[in-house]
Amino acid sequence: MKMSALVASLLLGASLAFAQAPTPAPGSTMGKAATEQDVIYEGELETHIAAGGESTGWRLRTRTVQGQRRFIEVLLTAEVAQGVRANTRVQVRGAMKTRHYAERGDVEVLVARSVIEVARTR
Question: Can you give the pLDDT at residue 15?
C-alpha cells in the first residue's frame, strides 16, 4: 500500500513539473536552435597555442570598427579543416560556444561549420 502511494505521488509530481515546462509553438525557434545562431566572421586564420596547450589550435584575427585587433578562437572539425591553410583570409560560418579550460577558464570559441578562403595573405 505504501509503495503504490509513493509511486502515485512521484507520478503526480512529475506530471506537474512537465505541465509547467513551456512547450514550443509551431515554427518557433525555442531551445537548441535559438542558442546556436550562425554567425559569420571574416579575417586572417592563424595557428595558435595557448598556455598549457589549452587551445583549439586556430584563431581568427579580425579588426574592430576602431581598427584594433581582435582574436576569436576557432574550433575546426576534421571535415571543415580539410584544405584550410594558415595565414589565409577566410570567411568562417559557425556558432559561438563557451569552452572551459583548467588554466584559462571559460573561453568563447567559434565552432566552425564552414570555412571559405577569400585570399591568401602571406
Answer: 46
Domain encompassing residue 45: 37-120
| Grid cell at residue 61 | 584575427
Task: Rounding to the nearest 10 degrees, give the CA dihedral for residues 108, 70, 88, 95.
Answer: 30
Bridge-based pairing state of the strands 105-120 and 69-75: parallel
Q: Are 98 and 90 in contact (CB under 8 A)?
A: no
CB atoms within 10 A of CB 19: 8
Is a pLDDT exceeding 50 seen at residue 23?
no
| CATH number, domain containing residue 46 | 2.40.50.140
- 44 DSSP β-pair partners: 61, 89
> For position 50, what pLDDT does the model report?
79
Looking at the 3D structure of the chain, how many domains does it have?
1
Three-class secondary structure of residue 59 per DSSP: strand
